Amino acid sequence: MIPIALKKWLGIRHSCKSPNSIFIGLIGGVGDLISAAPSVAALKRKYPDAKINFGVGDGIFFNTIKNDPNIDHFETPFFYDVWKKRARRKTYREKYKEHDLVFLLDNGTQDWWQPRKHLLDIYAEKCGVSLEERRPLIYLNDSDFEEAQKKIYELGISDKNKFLVLSPETRSKKKMKEWPYERFLLLIQKIRENHDFKIITLVSKDNPYNYDGTILLKGYPLGPSAAMISRANFYLGLDNGLTHIASCFDVKMLSIHIGYPVECAGPLSPFAKVVAHKPFDPPESISVDEVYTIFKKLI
Q1: For residue 44, which of 53, 70, 180, 288 is within the disulfide window of CB 3.0 to 4.6 Å?
Q2: pLDDT digit string (tens) for 234-279?
Q3: What phi and psi, each to the nearest 5 degrees, are found at residue 29?
Q4: CB 259 within 8 A of CB 112
Q5: Is the distance from CB of 238 to CB of 258 less than 8 angstroms?
Q6: Residue 25 DSSP label
Q7: Cα–Cα distance between 256 and 273 in angstroms, integer?
Q8: Range of the domain at 250
Q9: Does 158 lie in the same domain as 290?
Q10: What is the rounded CA–CA span in Å between residue 265 and residue 34?
Q11: Are residues 171 and 275 in the same domain?
C-alpha cells in the first residue's frame, strides 16, 4: 500500500474521509465549466465543512462560474499543460501541498470521447460523487436578468412577442462543429416566412457575418445572454457553450450537433432535441429541411 504522503508527491489521486480543503482545476470552455458545476455542488454536499478552491481561466471562463455559491475561492487565471503527464503530476503535487483533495478535471487525451461517456458524467466520476440531477448548472444574479430584460425591450420585443435565441457559432473547432453560414440564412428565412418569432442572434464581437433577418448582438455579456435565453420561447444552436447553458433552463431547444458523439457532448435537457448524423460527419451533411422539419415539430 502506498502511503498518502507518497501518493501526494507522485500526484496520485487518493481518498480523504474528512477533507478541510478541496482544489478543483478545469481549463475548459463554457460548456465544460457548467457541466462540472453539478459535481462541485455534489462535493459541497458530501463535504459541507470543506473549503472549495476552483482553478479556472480568466475572462469569460471565470465569468461562467463566478456566482457559484459552492465555491469558496477562485484561482484565476489557472493554467497547466493538460496534454503532458509530467505537467499534470507536477500540478497535483503543488496543489496537494495546500489541499486535502485535488481533482484536475481536464481530459489528458484528445481521445476522451471514445468511451462514449458524457462530460458531465466524466466529471462526476472523477470527483467520486453522485448527482442529484443529470443536467448542467449555471448561477446568475439579479443584474443579469435585469440587463437581459432591459435589452429585450430596447430591441423592440414586448411581452406579447415570441422570440427565439439563435447561437450559430462555436469558440473552437469551428471547421468541425459549425454549420455553414449560408444554411443558417436559409433556415432563418424559412422560420421568418412561416412563424412569428423575432430572432435574436448571439455571436462574438469579431464574427464577420450579418445573419440577415435577425437582431444581431455581437459580444453581448455571458450572464445577460444566459438570462435572455432563459426567457426565450425557443433556443436554436450548435454544440457550444450557449447551447449547454440553454439546457440549464426549461426552454424548448434544438441543437444542430456536429463533431463529437451526441452522447458525449450533447445538451442534457428534457426540452432538447438534437439533429445529428454520425460523429465527425461533414457539417454539410445536415440539410436545412432536416433541421426545419424538427423545428416545426417542436413548436
Answers
A1: 70
A2: 999 999 999 999 999 999 999 999 999 999 999 999 999 999 999 9
A3: -85, -175
A4: no
A5: yes
A6: E
A7: 9
A8: 143-298
A9: yes
A10: 12
A11: yes
